[in-house]
Amino acid sequence: MAKIVMLPVLLSFLLLPFSSMALTQDFCVADLTCSDTPAGYPCKAGVGAGDFAYHGLAAAGNTSNLIKAAVTPAFVGQFPGVNGLGISAARLDIAVGGVGPVAAGFISSSSNTVYTRTLYAGDIMVFPQGLLHYQYNAGQSAAVALVAFSGPNPGLQITDYALFANNLPSAIVEKVTFLDDAQVKKLKSVLGGSG
């Protein structure tokens, strides 16, 4: 009996190294001259210390816009050193009264529970993947957040733009949002939509 149990255990250890690219190579700095693939960019031939450092988050983003906020990414396209590591980062600047609009990845929960918290300097908060979330600066000075992602090219769907910055007919948007025609047309106008 012990021999039969040992065979599946040994086979699982043989397959384990293939479950993660991180186990087959230490790093793979992206070659941005090639196309991105589901497994990431191909590895760059010559690598130097500069490939592992990124200074793009040092400067504040331009918050002179409709939402009074700016996101400065450090995704694989800006920081090729994160390729294959399953991570990336960004800087979020929000002026007083500014917002990070409601956004989400894939949604797997439908409980409609709201989790709200005021954050202060040095605080950290996690947004589970797929959870609708927003940011609002209710303070008296500009706010800065450093954001970490669990992928080199994270996706994001900003709900306001998805609903109003398109050519979906206003009559349909009215039905799915419970807003009246004037409100829908105003939002489409502000966000660049038509229809």
TrEMBL record:
Where is Mn(2+) annotated to bind? 133
Q: How does it assemble?
A: Oligomer (believed to be a pentamer but probably hexamer).
Q: What is the lineage of its organism?
A: Eukaryota, Viridiplantae, Streptophyta, Embryophyta, Tracheophyta
SUPFAM superfamilies recorded for this chain?
RmlC-like cupins (SSF51182)
Q: Localized where?
A: Secreted, Extracellular space, Apoplast
Give the main location.
Answer: secreted
Gene3D superfamilies under this entry? Jelly Rolls
Report the SS bond pairs: 28-43
The cross-references to Pfam families, in alphabetical order and at most eight, read: Cupin_1
Quote one Gene Ontology molecular function term: manganese ion binding
Of which family is this protein a member? Belongs to the germin family.
Where does the UniProt annotation place the signal sequence?
A: 1-24
Q: Does the keyword Manganese apply?
A: yes
Write the protein's name: Germin-like protein
Q: Name a GO CC annotation attached to this entry.
A: apoplast
Keyword entries, A-Z? Apoplast, Disulfide bond, Manganese, Metal-binding, Secreted, Signal
Q: Which residues form the Cupin type-1 domain?
A: 55-185
